[in-house]
Amino acid sequence: MRMPFEEAVLNFRSEGFRSIGLWRPRLADFGEDRAAILLQDAGMSVSSLSFAGGFTGSHGYRYTEAIHDGFDALKQAAIVGAETVVLVAGGLNGHITKHARRNVVDGIRTLSERAEQLGVQLALRPMRKTFHHTWSFLNTCDETIGILDQIQCPNVGLAIDLYHCGLESDWKKSLRTIAPHTSLVFVNDLPCPNSTEYEMCLPGDGILPVRAILEEFVIGGFEGKFEVHVWSEKLWELPSRRLFANVRESLARVWPAAWGHWARQFRNDSPA
After folding, report:
1. ω before 51 within 30° of 0 (cis)?
2. Is 64:39 a contact under the CB 8 Å cutoff?
3. Model-level pTM greater than 0.85?
4. Looking at per-residue confidence, does 92 or 66 come out higher?
5. How far is the CA of 230 from the CAs of 21, 197, 233, 267, in angstroms?
6. What is the mean pLDDT of residues 165-191?
7. Which residues contact 146 (CB under 8 A, 6 or more apart)?
8. In a 10 Å sphere around its CB, with 0-12 CB exposed, 13-18 middle and 19+ buried, how is residue 1 labelled?
9. What single string gives the DSSP state of each residue in the chain?
10. Measured on CA atoms in the order 127, 132, 133, 136, is the torsion positive or negative?
11. Residue 153 belongs to what domain range?
């Protein structure tokens, strides 16, 4: 969060990553057009843009304002070539659940029409119960799939965050079920005990069976992107090159065969 945009892009590239997830406030600060040129020059694609949504008003937007903000997010995604825009439903915010669900379904249907025109995917992200009243009243994969079943739009999938969903009961069965519906997997780990409600750790540094979870996604037919997504004040304090090196090392440790394959691809694709 504290890293200059250009520094982040170039350090990602030098550490062997070819795709990056973008955070809308940082993108807006740098400028979408400038970012598109920088990313193209660096040979970096954009896996996702986070976030839009908040259809229940819990983020300070009225419903219509949330829709217009979603349109802005889609426009930004199209400029930088982002494959997916990540959506959050919004907290319950005094609504009855039925009304909140209707707002989410109607809002995403509206955004999906514009997204289809721009060639952008949408991915709805469930969040753990702690965030029920602030960020998302959708707290399980099953609840979120229920919303997708109502929406019935092929360009709308799931964004699954291991920190938020990794402890769901019977996860092995659930992962194989949700994998075909999933566009994006946020890879991180769950520390024990949590230092704050937002604190995450790198894959392999916490209590989740990260490799087993990722393998189950692949076995279940997942064809999207794995994206390292770690909110951590402790990690953000590291020098940028050390932070990116830690990310690379954690992936190599957690899933060595997959990381070796990605690393070979990077070497082969890199200019001489």
Report:
1. yes
2. no
3. yes
4. 66
5. 11, 13, 10, 25
6. 87
7. none
8. exposed
9. --S-HHHHHHHHHHTT--EEEEEHHHHHHH-HHHHHHHHHHHT-EEEEEEEEE-TTSTTS--HHHHHHHHHHHHHHHHHHTBSEEEEE-B--TT--HHHHHHHHHHHHHHHHHHHHHHT-EEEE----GGGTTTTBS--SHHHHHHHHHHH--TTEEEEEEHHHHTT-TTHHHHHHHHGGGEEEEEE-B--SS-SSSS--B-TTSSSS-HHHHHHHHHHTT--SEEEE----HHHHTS-HHHHHHHHHHHHHHHSHHHHHHHHHHHHHHS--
10. positive
11. 5-269
The domain total for the chain is 1
pLDDT of residue 270 exceeding 70, the answer is: no
Task: Give pLDDT, residue 120.
Answer: 98
Each residue's pLDDT tens digit, 79-110: 999 999 999 999 987 788 999 999 999 999 99
If you count them, how many residues does the chain have?
Answer: 272
For residue range 8-57, what is the model confidence (pLDDT) as tens digits? 899 888 887 889 999 999 999 999 999 999 999 999 999 999 999 999 98
| CATH number reported for the structural domain that contains residue 19 in this entry | 3.20.20.150
Rounded mean pLDDT of the chain? 90
Which of 59-63, 165-169, 207-211 shows the highest mean pLDDT?
207-211
Instruction: For residue 11, give both structure tokens.
Output: 């350090």
How large is the greatest C-alpha to C-alpha distance in the chain, in angstroms?
59
